[in-house]
Automatic annotation (TrEMBL):
GO terms for cellular component: apoplast. The active site is at 111 (nucleophile), 115 (proton donor). It comes from the Eukaryota. It is found in: Secreted, Cell wall; Secreted, Extracellular space, Apoplast. Its EC number is 2.4.1.207. It comes from Cuscuta europaea. Residues 1-34 form the signal peptide. It is an enzyme of class 2 (transferase). InterPro entries: Beta-glucanase-like, Beta-glucanase/XTH, Beta_glucanase, ConA-like_dom_sf, GH16_AS, XET_C, XTH. One of its GO terms (biological process) is cell wall biogenesis. This is Xyloglucan endotransglucosylase/hydrolase.
Amino acid sequence: MTAIPGAGRIPPVVGFVLLLLGLAVMSAPSGVAAANFNNEVDITWGEGRAKIDGQGLVLTLSLDKASGSGFRSKNQYMYGKIEMKLKLVAGNSAGTVTTFYLSSLGSTHDEIDFEFLGNASGDPYVLHTNVFTQGKGGREQQFYLWFDPTKDFHTYSILWNPESIIFTVDGTPIRQFKNLGSSGIPYPKDQPMWVYGSLWDAEEWATRGGLVKTDWSQAPFVASYSNYTAQACVWSGPSSSSCSKNPSANPWLVESLDNSGQERIKWVQKNYMVYNYCSDAKRFPQGFPPECSLNS
């Protein structure tokens, strides 16, 4: 994990750019009904700290000094568009990490990460993204958000198809990782993944590189998840998939960024990115990883 840059402030938002690029626009309704958590996930750890409401529509995770908590989807997926609304830990959340990610298992696993690194009161959350292929990560990009993620639910989406991985916040793309297998760059394409969520303590590194520790007097820390949708290929074996190969039946399989999306992602990265492994010359004195120039 690369240390987070020193504390800073979110750069001012330029009104006419927001108007042009639509960064303030929430994601359009997808027409996909939110899943019932009781039917879609298993609470995997936390000894009662993870709870699903009576209707199955909201799942809360809590963290205290004894333990955090987490869940995993019942299904594995081989490509998909996975969305979740999250409301993050409010107040002094320093040292805590709230996650929403996809992952397979084993030492050569693939993984696609949203991790929300807690903050001292008054400082912005850091949204940490990463992509692992064949057990290798180290592709960190970190962002501030243009809203307070503790005041209300916001939508976080991972689109994973044969062409690319796109990370989206409230309908705004913030990062793309392309399938560059033809250039010899590994891409998550051979391993089905589960959907995970967790809330845990990482005070050794999470906030300002570990300088700010968890204040346990603020516990229990609580994060909430809702509106879980998985437009995805359910995997049940090497020769079995729930997906039609017809793109009209699963349009997300061929979904990509249009010109407007490319401009929006550039705007976010210019104004809200606080760390990019592809710009860390000290970390890569012999040259940046090959995907850095090809993913731009």
